[in-house]
Amino acid sequence: MTSNSVTSVPKYALVLWLDEKKVSPILSKFITNKQMLYNNRIVDLIAYPKSEGKEPKDGWQKYSGVVLQLGNSKQELTKKSADLMNAYYKEAENSHEGKGFVLVLWLDSEESSVIAESYILDKRMLNNSKLSDLIPRPIDDEQEPDEGWDFIKGSVLKYSANKGDLERDRWEIVAEYINNVKQNTQPSTSRDGNESSSDSMIEAGNKRGLEDSGDSSFEAKYKKLKQEHANTKATLAATKVQLADKEDLLNITIKDIPRIIQEAVQEILTKDFLVSVVKSALPTVPVGGIAAAIAGPAEGRGDIERAKAAIIQQSGMEEEQFDIHSRPKDFSKVTKNLVMGLFNNDELMTSTLTGNPKDKDVLPNVLDKPKITLIHNYVTARFPGTTISQVNKAIGEKLRDYRKSKGFD
């Protein structure tokens, strides 16, 4: 399991399915991540074929696993399966390095993804989300190219032995991280009178980490790519200026289009024209019902956009940050993310929706009602049928969870 120089891959791979702690031999062609064939420290999703027959159109279902051994005899691998599984777990008791997963926030794009822990070279990043550095970004369901994955600057937000947990809570973790960064962006003054920031401290820490270690081939490549990344910053800045100029020109051109044409087209498409088409196809349907059905979705969309604009305008939240908070498809997660974006740490720790105390000696503050109304308006518009009571319940759950995470009940 350590050699990378092979001329052909054995027919079968003995896979340990981590969720069920069971082993079974499967055809090695089903291992998408080819690095797993020769490294049992890499954990990833593997297709589980129910037979060696034809794969269904939607593909085999995938489960988390590792490759214990390769071989051309299915029977021989089965005989060794119990011993190999026991050896794997015995080794795991001594160290979990490389066997878990991390949630990475890619700083250039504010996207996030769950990748194997083994991709993180600087292990200090596993326990410190303030550290940021270049990290190889693997692409799901694709084999790593010969030149390796592209390196993107990112931070490790959380480590877990279970990939599913990170995928489930991904957006909530990202939203909380961004909210914390927003609250800690003020520069501080060092003992020598110079201003310092978390970015400069991170960069210094990263440099020390690389200076203390030897230059392996992997680290040499890592340093080279990092330097190339730094050299492109000036080019990227110039490109952004050019794009901004083109956007201004486009906006001026759009304003030259006669507004009356836009209004006429909108009037035809949203009312009379569509009503006529539906009426001709379905003569028995009342015209009023058709018009209401057409207007409803448009009005609902307008409510969502107005509620979004109100949050951005009144809270000072950037639109990119709002889009991250509102990305989940579940009203409860969106509600909890907006709570993290609209309220600071002190408010989250000391306030409730009503101000009613659980402890008679402690009188909590009341969460800012205009901000709560902003959350109510957006969530109920975005998720029709959701009640104010349901939104308030989600807000209360987030407050309790946040305080528990800080060590308070």
What does this structure look like?
Residues 327-406 form the BEN domain. InterPro entries: BEN_domain. This protein has 409 residues and is an alpha+beta fold. It folds into 3 domains: 12-94, no CATH class; 101-180 and 199-213, no CATH class; 281-405, BEN domain (Arc Repressor Mutant, subunit A, Orthogonal Bundle), CATH 1.10.10. It has 13 helices and 12 strands. The strands form 4 sheets. Strands 2-1-4-3 form a 4-stranded antiparallel β-sheet, with helices on one face. The protein has a 4-stranded antiparallel β-sheet with strand order 6-5-8-7. β1 (12-17) and β2 (22-27) form a beta hairpin. The longest helix is centred in the C-terminal third of the chain and has 29 residues, at 287-315. The radius of gyration is 27 Å and the shape is globular.
Total DSSP E strands = 12
- Assigned CATH superfamily of the largest domain: BEN domain
For the biggest β-sheet, the strand order reads 2-1-4-3
Largest sheet: 4 strands, antiparallel
Number of domains: 3
CATH architecture annotation of the largest domain: Orthogonal Bundle
C-alpha end-to-end distance: 48 Å
Q: State the helix count.
A: 13
SSE topology string: EEEEHEEEEHHEEHHHHHHHHEEHH
Region (Disordered): 183-215
Pfam families: BEN
Domain BEN: 327-406
Biased composition (Polar residues): 183-200
Question: Gist?
Answer:
This protein is of the alpha+beta class. It folds into 3 domains: 12-94, no CATH class; 101-180 and 199-213, no CATH class; 281-405, Arc Repressor Mutant, subunit A, CATH 1.10.10.2590. It has helices spanning 74-94, 163-168, 170-183, 198-212, 217-231, 233-255, 259-281, 287-315, 319-325, 331-342, 345-350, 369-382, 388-405, and strands spanning 12-17, 22-27, 44-47, 62-71, 101-106, 111-116, 133-136, 151-160, 188-189, 195-196, 351-352, 365-366.
